[in-house]
Amino acid sequence: MIRRIHSGGEFEKKVGYCRAVVANGFVFVAGTCAQGDDVPKDIVGQCKSSLAAIREALAEAGASFADVVRVNYYLPDMTEFELCWPLLVEAFGDNPPAATVIECNLITPMDRIEIEVTAALPQ
């Protein structure tokens, strides 16, 4: 069975995707940038917002950050990534996932970070 989780974000309909898909014992959370009407301009605020949206999607799927096995970080400026490290350590705690960091353009020029995760559903 496949279950799709929608956040209602503006790009879901524009681009044709959903926030997360639950399939075969895993939760695949789409790349997530800062959310909401008042998006922070700085990378730390955007990282917090992205993590909050991911936390919600994981919870709706029945998982948490402790279940994340893979994370991909996308940034237009790699020099800013270190500012996010304390937030990431706090989110993943004693359960760090395998990780990749890629420097690239994001969907809008104002985006400073996009985070994508895959989690295993708890048994």
Automatic annotation (TrEMBL):
Keywords assigned: Hydrolase
InterPro entries with a match to the protein in the record: RutC-like_sf, YjgF/YER057c/UK114
Family matches, as SUPFAM superfamilies: YjgF-like
Origin superkingdom: Bacteria
MF terms (GO), sorted A to Z: hydrolase activity
Keyword Hydrolase: yes
Keyword Hydrolase: yes
Designated name of the protein: Rid family hydrolase
Gene source species: Ruegeria spongiae
Lineage, broadest ranks: Bacteria, Pseudomonadati, Pseudomonadota, Alphaproteobacteria, Rhodobacterales
